[in-house]
Amino acid sequence: MTVRGKDFDGALDRAAHHARAWLEDVGERPVPPRIDADAVGDSLAGPFPDRGLDPAGVVDELAARVEPGLMAIGSGRFFGWVMGGTLPAALGADWLVSAWDQNAGMRFSTPGVVAVEEAAGRWVLDALGLPAGSDVGFVTGATTASFTGLAAARGTVLARAGWDVHDRGLTGGPPVRVLVGAERHDSVDLALRYLGLGAPTVVAADEQGRLRVDALAAALADGPPGTPTIVALQAGNVHSGSFDPFAAAIPLAHEHGAWAHVDGAFGLWAAAAPDLAHLVRGVEDADSWATDAHKTLNVPYDCGVAVVADPAAVRAAFGVHTAYLVDAPGPGNPYEKAPELSRRARGVPTWAALRSLGRGGLAGLVGGLARRAREIAEGVAGIDGVRVVNDVVYTQVCLALGDDARTRAAGERLLADGETWISGSRWQGRDVLRVSVSNWSTDDDDVARTVEAVRRAVGGAG
């Protein structure tokens, strides 16, 4: 059968129609989904049909059945988790990525999209002030990005101890000690579990969740000299937005022969905004970094970014050579820089987002998110009974009422109200309502409506 462009017309036309309708409405619809997963599942129940449906009809049926169960994550009043919206250029590029349907694993076979990703990688390094020449891998998200950096770390620190983990595995080798702050994100622990490194050693943090350098120094000094060690630091605490003290912690780690990794899922982008760059001072001296493009940069899911300063370290962890995988001249194949041989060209929307913003626009985007967080914090702090319990240094705001019961009640009323989505959490021994400002479209009106929604919820929280 010959594939012709017109074969796709009906499905693409209907997809564009439904996408435009969603984007037109997402800013004004209630933020929570209208029905739950079971209700969506019921609409999809039934036996596998004997006869197929034309492509346009399939798209229409899919949109009709799924749309009631969609959360308005793209709304300027969605603050439930650190999930960005989607910049227009990034969305357009993502559609092209699906239409092109390229396997972005090898330079030789798909040079077009690989070259775009390489350009995006250079721009990411430039924007974040990370070492030129670092390897950049485009992965599914920050968890996989940390997995990538920590895999390179594992191989390197064991090699220094005389053990080749890539040939010999972990069994019988020296144990790897991983030091983490008490308030690191659980995705770091998950990556360590994937790597067979087990639970990390926890280092004390301060009242804002920042790793304490004195506690790190004591932990590094505890144990036999030459112990293979990794120190995992954090750029952007999910509750306070705080940043570990990189300028002190990273040199200290290196003094003890440790690899320094930074989980910067949303916080690493502070480096791109001149008025926020002080938060990440010294971060460029680490050995690996993990971040998400689908958070602060606002590209579509899924797109994490793994950066490793030493290309040899990450390629030793993920490189593979077979007769059918063609090596091409240049800066290595994408499959050598991340844990996938085959994948979609997820770095292309990253290039499009950065190209549409430019340096000034990127600084404005990141700085604007932090400014909106301050505005929300200032607005809710004026509501009787509400206290902002963190130092608002970046994009995170944590609120609490007089006691846990009132805080939980206010959170329930907020979700029932539907005007905004602010998730409940627990931090520093108490229940909180956490605001994560991540969407490029959040504006003055969204801030005002969010503050008023909190006022209504607090008024009825008892």
Task: Provide the number of structural domains.
Answer: 2
Number of helix segments? 14
- What would you call the quaternary organization? single chain
What would CATH call the architecture of the largest domain?
A: 3-Layer(aba) Sandwich
What is the CATH C-level name of the largest domain? Alpha Beta
Q: Tell me roughly what share of residues is in helical segments.
A: 40-55%
Percentage of residues in DSSP E strands: 5-15%
Give the low-confidence spans.
none
Query: What is the distance, rounded to the nearest whole angstrom, between the alpha carbons of the first and last residues?
Result: 67 Å
Anisotropy-based shape = globular
Question: Mind telling me the C-alpha Rg?
Answer: 23 Å
Strand count, sense and barrel status of the largest sheet are:
7 strands, mixed
Q: Looking at CATH, which topology of the largest domain would you report?
A: Aspartate Aminotransferase, domain 2
Q: Which secondary-structure class do the elements indicate?
A: alpha/beta
The chain-level mean pLDDT equals: 95
Tally of extended strands? 11
Within CATH, the superfamily of the largest domain carries the name Type I PLP-dependent aspartate aminotransferase-like (Major domain)
Q: What spatial order of strands do you see in the largest sheet?
A: 1-7-6-5-4-2-3
Run of helices and strands: HHHHHEHHEHEHEHEEEHHEEHEEH
